[in-house]
Amino acid sequence: MHLSLVCLAKPILHGYFRSSCSWRVRIAFALKGIEYDQVPVHLIKDGGQQLTEQYKTLNPMQQVPAVEIDGITLSQSLAVIQYIDETRPGPRLLPEDPKKRAQVRMISDVIASGIQPLQNLYVIQKIGAEKVQWAHHFIDRGFQALEPILKQTAGKYCVGDEISMADICLVPQVYNAERFKVDLGQYPTIKRLNQVLLQIEAFKVSDPSCQPDTPADLRA
Amino acid sequence: MDTSEVPAHGGFALLTEQYKTLNPMQQVPAVEIDGITLSQSLAVIQYIDETRPGPRLLPEDPKKRAQVRMISDVIASGIQPLQNLYVIQKIGAEKVQWAHHFIDRGFQALEPILKQTAGKYCVGDEISMADICLVPQVYNAERFKVDLGQYPTIKRLNQVLLQIEAFKVSDPSCQPDTPADLRA
Fold first, then answer.
1. Is Phosphoprotein one of the keywords (chain B) (predicted)?
2. In this predicted structure, what is the pLDDT of residue B6?
């Protein structure tokens, strides 16, 4: 009988407690009940540990997360999440119906392409003094689009009544919105969905407030 | 596949209330298909792949499929959003340097990734969504005067892909709304 040692090894997540993209992957692992190891990559200390030559071999984009799984290394959280979904049992992270699946990807991409890249650490460091207004602007703009989309697609969760990759993307983005003082009152659907999702175990255990690398002053 | 294309001239048409109903992000593209309207190109592409017969746009193997999505997202999340029209209009005077910087940065990451994953195409020997994302991004790179000499794998893949019929017929130089002075 042939045993694949590589597949028996736990996945390793290289991430940062407050990185929204790392958080997405943590939620996905938790929803699927997958145990994994975390290797913290501090984005500020030492000038940013994601900028070391060593980390660059894991992710040439020099961003978190990077995930070592099944003998390969993957970056880009949505690629990781869909890989997990396609190779592990447990609740589906994308719906069975192709149209609903497309809506999940659309919502996820509004966040992962349309909002988050415009307000991540690298970009706001480049923007400099105006960074809070810049981040606020792009989150607002994205949420102004997301709100009517979600009004149409949401049931109990972002798309219908099953938790999906869209919900996984939404919660960390709302956390970022709050960090940049975006007024969620303008986005009642987003607000409601976020509140419901925050009660779910997989979202709780993956929260930035309780990770191995959460600083003492930010611990829950 | 037969489609019809409705040009939304960059600038004014995107910001209309009418277009907003198609895509609340007020960006192109938006696709009306099978009774629904979808935005976000990768969501559209994967929907097409999952509902239409013909050559796969994502590989069958889950690891290769993940690599295709990873490469596509480096481009669609890591590069393009930082150099699209809306953002560079906001950046203002420094826009060429800004766009050049982000495309360079992304290509510096993409080159070693592709060195590892590419066969004849971006991932192995079958055309995929990764190739679909690469060619338009290289076109943008050239518009912003990025030196492709630094990225031999990207350059090679782009040259091979540009010879393929599907890439030729969808080229910006021959669309219904291509201005006369830019027509092939």
1. no
2. 74
